[in-house]
Design goal:
There is one protein chain. By secondary structure, the chain is mostly helical. The chain has helices at residues 2-18, 29-33, 39-54, 61-86, 94-112, 115-139, 144-163, 172-179, 187-205, 207-217, 219-224, 229-255, 267-277, 288-307, 312-330, 332-350, and strands spanning 168-169, 181-182, 185-186, 257-258. Helix content is 76%, strand content 2%. Strands 1-4 form a two-stranded antiparallel ribbon. A two-stranded antiparallel ribbon has the order 2-3. Strand 2 and strand 3 form a beta hairpin. Helix 1 packs across helix 10 (207-217), helix 4 (61-86) runs antiparallel to helix 12 (229-255) and helix 4 crosses helix 14 (288-307). The relative contact order is 0.19.
Length: 351
């Protein structure tokens, strides 16, 4: 009886995992058009059209080229948070990890004299810090928010130690890559798109990715099926930390210096991009591609609001409104199906 129950739970988790990001051909048109991870594409197109009408300066080539690198950085941060939220987690220490990523690559680039070695060591260090987060949460069962807030304080202490309280100049090689364009398109945007597509492929199309999704959907059933749940949960925090480290490196290169407040602007927007993209906090379901598109949506929305002369308070209000709309739209297909079912039942009663 125990084995059959575990098998049933695992089949349920597996079925849930296989539905992730898919749009079944048998679903109603309203569900296909306004699914969990499809509406953000329409919203992004709408925000660009609205920008062209209300603030045309924000869609000029020069403005877009200045905005896209920041959208790329936010997209990479959103990928890290998406991976964690799929595992029912969250990382509040991304502030420290992003800042450390930028500072370490600047410091190590100067010390080692090799930018490649500096980037490699920075990402290895970020990986180790991510494993620390994962062990605290998955092994010691500390609440993710509490654990990552504590480690963030630790990481920020390291930031102050490394920086000495003053910004550090970014290595020239990183700055060159950050400002380089490929056929007119910012290289940072291309790298971010490739990064997102690779992560999406791994999660959707590999055995490890399907097991990762199963762990997020139902950890107990996955453990009963023999999946090493602890490894996947810790690995999620390690992978997210690498994402935050990459974002920190890109940010430092684009800005030209590594400061001790670099990550502060990406905590809430990174989580907001995941929510707006449609990834729920219940685990198992999610789309890193949708989160990346949501990052572009939020960045352009912020540019438009700023161009209209709105203050900081209004910008936060607009961002909060976008999150509320995103959550509402996510449940729109289920609401349509529910109303349609009631209408059909009502007609059956009348007949």
């Amino acid at each position: 009886m125990i084995e059959s129950t575990a098998a049933f739970e695992f089949r349920s988790a597996k079925t849930k995992a296989l539905r992730i990001g898919s749009i079944s051909q048998g679903k109603p048109m309203s569900t296909r058009l306004f699914g969990e991870f499809t509406w953000i594409w329409y919203a992004t197109i709408l925000v660009f059209v609205t920008s062209a009408i209300a603030a045309p300066g924000t869609v000029q080539p020069s403005a877009l080229f200045a905005m896209l690198p920041f959208a790329a950085i936010l997209a990479i941060v959103a990928v890290g948070q998406t991976i964690l939220i799929q595992q029912r987690g969250l990382d509040m220490s991304c502030v420290g990890l992003i800042t450390l990523g930028g500072l370490l690559v600047a410091k190590l680039g100067f010390v080692t004299g090799s930018i490649y070695l500096a980037v490699l060591l920075t990402l290895i260090f970020a990986l180790a810090l991510g494993i620390l987060n994962g062990m605290l949460i998955a092994k010691l069962n500390i609440t993710p928010i509490v654990a990552t807030l504590a480690t963030n304080a630790l990481f920020m202490g390291g930031v102050r130690t490394i920086s000495g309280g003053s910004p550090m100049t970014a290595p020239q090689e990183i700055a060159d890559v950050a400002h380089q364009r490929f056929f007119g398109v910012p290289l940072m945007l291309i790298l971010a798109i490739v990064f997102i597509l690779v992560v999406s492929f791994v999660v959707r199309s590999t055995v490890a990715g399907r097991r990762f999704v199963a762990v997020g959907a139902n950890p107990a059933a996955a453990a009963a099926a023999g999946i090493p749940v602890l490894s996947y949960q810790v690995g999620a925090y390690a992978a997210a930390a690498v994402c935050f480290g990459v974002a920190g490196i890109f940010y430092t290169g684009f800005i030209g210096s590594a400061s001790q407040v670099a990550g502060s602007d990406y905590l809430l927007p990174g989580i907001a991009a995941v929510v707006v993209g449609g990834t729920p906090f219940t685990g198992g379901r999610g789309s890193v591609i949708a989160s990346g598109v949501a990052a572009l949506f939020l960045t352009q929305l912020g540019q438009m609001v700023l161009a209209l002369g709105a203050g900081t308070a209004i910008q936060f209000l607009v961002q909060a409104l976008a999150i509320v709309i995103a959550v509402s739209v996510r449940h729109l297909p289920a609401l349509i199906v529910l109303l349609r079912g009631r209408c059909l039942r009502g007609k059956a009663v009348l007949l």
